[in-house]
Amino acid sequence: MPKSRELHCDDYVGQPYEAVRDTLLSDPRGIFHRATVTSAAHAAGSELRVTVGAIEISAEIEIKVVSNQPALSPLHQPAHTLTLAWSSPRRPGWFPTMAATLTMYALSPTQTQLDFDGTYQPPLGVFGAVVDALALHRFAEASVTGFVREVAGFLRNEISRRHAAADPTARAGRPSP
Q1: Beta partners for 5?
Q2: What is the C-alpha to C-alpha distance for residues 38 and 65, in angstroms, rounded to an integer?
Q3: Is 161 helix (H, G, I), strand (E, B) or coil?
Q4: Domain count of the chain?
């Protein structure tokens, strides 16, 4: 059996930690789906994408939230961790399986970090390990980085949209009294 490969990436959400945590925990699978799916054709799952030159390669994935729990950040401040598992619902034997944690924590009162730490198992046994060593690992890194970037961007926009909807003066462009 091929050795598992590790991946790590992070991104920032220019929103307070509590807002990011509450928004993401309200519907994590739905948020992952809405953040990553580019077409109605993939209505059931999330999507990972990698761009190679002018070609975009995508794969539908099913993300399971195995657990979610409070944690501590590297700065020993409140944090929250989602334990994730994903695989391809259409071609499970041809696609790596992933086990990961997504941790969110405050860097400042208005900045939240998302940290993704995961391991994936290359598919197809020894042949898959060779392909992984040659190219798949770079694709895996790029797709996970894109996933975290898309989730962070979605959370930024969603929290801003909710804030604007709750504050009529923000929508009208007038300063609050």
Answers
A1: 120
A2: 21
A3: helix
A4: 1
